[in-house]
Design brief:
By secondary structure, this protein is an alpha+beta fold. Helices cover 18% and strands 29% of the residues. A hairpin with a 2-residue loop joins β4 and β5.
């Protein structure tokens, strides 16, 4: 059994250790990291998953971004401890956090990931006009937005720390 909790500042070291284990030493060189460097994660949308003993099993965070003038969020990183991968921890973190997003405040969520995994949460491949500030395989650039917003998204995603 896992429990989802809001992330607290005291979780920082444990989360960083999980991220290092999950993504390796090159994780800070990835393109999505360019959107986090000068940005601040939204505290109300950052969560951890723990087992009954309180051990950290996973974490998720969101960062405010803009696509043109449209406010949105960057999902990630989403990390799950290797001992419980494939057991639904990541899906539970996504479901809990996505349910907290105010669509009138943030019109879309963008991420870099595998469509097969994230499609279950409503993500689809971003339109060809949507870019990140660096190289990304276009089939891994995913967006979650209603159809009216999705069809109008274009440009380069930029950090938007003023939206915190």
């Amino acid at each position: 059994m896992i429990t989802i909790y809001p992330t607290e500042p005291s979780h920082g070291d444990d989360i960083n250790a999980l991220l290092d284990r999950s993504f390796g030493p090159g994780r800070l060189a990835r393109t999505a990291e360019r959107l986090r460097e000068t940005n601040v994660p939204l505290a109300g949308l950052s969560f951890i998953a723990c087992n009954a003993d309180g051990a950290l099993l996973g974490s998720i965070s969101y960062w405010p971004v803009r696509l043109g003038t449209t406010p949105g969020l960057l999902l990630g990183p989403l990390a799950v401890d290797s001992t419980v991968r494939g057991q639904g921890v990541g899906v539970q973190l996504m479901e809990a956090s996505l349910a907290c997003i105010e669509p009138t405040r943030f019109a879309f969520v963008v991420l870099v990931g595998d469509l097969d995994y994230y499609a279950r949460a409503g993500f689809r491949i971003a339109a060809p006009e949507v870019h990140l500030p660096g190289p990304v395989d276009p089939v891994r650039l995913l967006v979650r937005a209603d159809d009216a917003i999705y069809t109008h998204l274009s440009g380069t995603v930029r950090p938007a720390p003023d939206l915190c």
